[in-house]
Amino acid sequence: MSPPRSPARALLGLLRPRRRRVDLLVAVLLLVLGFAVAVQVRSTRSDGLLTSARQEDLVQILDELNNRSDRLRQEVTSLTDTRSKLTSGSGADEAALSEAERRTQLLGVIAGTVAATGPGVQVRITDPKTQVSASVLLDALEELRNAGAEAVELQGTGPTGTVTGLRIVAQSYLTDEPDGVIVDGTKLVAPYRFLVIGDAATLAGAMAIPGGVEDAVRQAGGSTEITRSTRIRVGALRVITAPRYARPQ
Q1: Where are the alpha helices (DSSP H) in 88-212?
Q2: Which domain holds residue 80?
Q3: Pair 70, 157 in one domain
Q4: Could you state, in chain order, the average pLDDT of each consecutive group of 10 residues for the chain (249 residues)?
Q5: CB atoms within 10 A of CB 137
Q6: Same domain, 129 and 230
Q7: CA neighbours closer than 13 Å in the CB half-sphere of residue 105
Q8: How far, in Å, are 69, 119, 185, 198 from residue 115 at the CA level?
């Protein structure tokens, strides 16, 4: 028989926390609740940005989303028609050849190995103080791509003092120079000019978003001029080199 505990020892035993399964369950529930609250706060902040946006900006964002949706629907329709032709039996060989040629041209535009024409915009960026960095031009390029740019050429004054155009593709890179930028190994000096093929209204709107490219260029002491056109020619070509490591599978 164990000796009786003193009142002080008994009280201390009651106050000492005990680890029980219910305590662990409560702790887990509190963690889940905290995570849910954090997600809700972040979502509320994002919604607040849209709430504080101007009506013109909201209309522009909606138009851009609608344009992307329309392009995706057209692509789905085109792929569905192609599949029907290839599986119908009659004229399948001609349909396959036509589709192969079409895809070759499309891939050539994406890879930058063929010239392209179409509607779009010219974006001219001046830099009198040589403060427009490569990151600003990269932001402009990303905004144009997000707005549906299908072919892009970046022009500037090259090493020979003449206007030099470079085809911008997925592998392109931009780095800073003291008085210009390096684009895919070639130095360009302002003024810079983007030749972009795509929906002209959407591309122009992407450049004018508050806090975007135009504001960044203005803060750097430069200016941005956007010209819409029904016919933009992207003529600069990309030289394709064989990959060192990647192999088709």
Answers
A1: 92-111, 134-146, 200-207
A2: 55-111
A3: no
A4: 53 50 57 61 51 67 73 73 65 67 79 92 96 95 92 93 93 92 95 96 90 92 96 92 81
A5: 27
A6: yes
A7: 8
A8: 26, 14, 21, 14
